[in-house]
């Protein structure tokens, strides 16, 4: 039977690459995001096994109706890929504005929880899989990234806790925790500064969205008795810088 993935944030980066690879692998894909034009372009590219769905992760009250209105052929969900997310501008908290932080928490944390809750009955019915995009930032803090890192640490621990809740249902849950992937992530984080994004990823061979899509495919297509709990991956040229010590 053809399987169906529900992927949030299919309009760019990792989500778009995952939508492409799952359609190529014979799955049906429901792809969400806020940008209408991007969703329509993806639908034109991928054909009838892709269903575009405009959804804002901050508007959890819309989730029930959106899911309830899915066409019959896309109603049974085998895989939820909680991918939509973003980081606020890099800033020490003492210098940060509150609104961008709220956007990140509403999207990366509250929206993810609400959507997962809304789709769980369908996932339980199909003994499906939940794959959540966390980050290396969940484990390794860096200056200016406290709220983003906190949101991704939530995603990681939420994933593990959800496994406990779903014990015995056959539903698998995985937290995927990448390091640097060249997507629109840094463009969004910097408010559209393409030069800053290019500089961050220059001469270090970052991971690509396709690298992560391939990892997601691997996790999702393992035999049903195998659950990858957490999976951390980095570009070879990214590692750690050690502790900062302030001397007075
Ligand atoms: P992109 O910026 O390329 O893509 C982000 C996606 O999230 C877009 O499709 C965007 O869609 C969607 N999104 C953002 N806000 C909302 C919202 N309010 N409602 C609906 N969709 C939303 O970034 P990536 O592909 O890199 O990021 C994907 C995930 O991977 C994120 O959770 C990110 O934190 C995580 N990650 C990324 C890493 C990296 O280095 N790139 C490393 C580790 C983790 P639209 O704007 O159309 O709504
Ligand atoms: C973002 C990963 O390494 O760019 O989630 O901070 S990194």
From TrEMBL:
This protein's UniProt keywords: Oxidoreductase
One matching Pfam family: adh_short
InterPro entries per record: KR_dom, NAD(P)-bd_dom_sf, Sc_DH/Rdtase_CS, SDR_fam
Domain named Ketoreductase: residues: 3-183
Xref: Gene3D superfamilies: NAD(P)-binding Rossmann-like Domain (3.40.50.720)
Recorded GO MF terms: oxidoreductase activity, acting on the CH-OH group of donors, NAD or NADP as acceptor
Coiled-coil positions: none
Family from the record: Belongs to the short-chain dehydrogenases/reductases (SDR) family.
Protein name: SDR family NAD(P)-dependent oxidoreductase
Organism: Sphingomonas edaphi
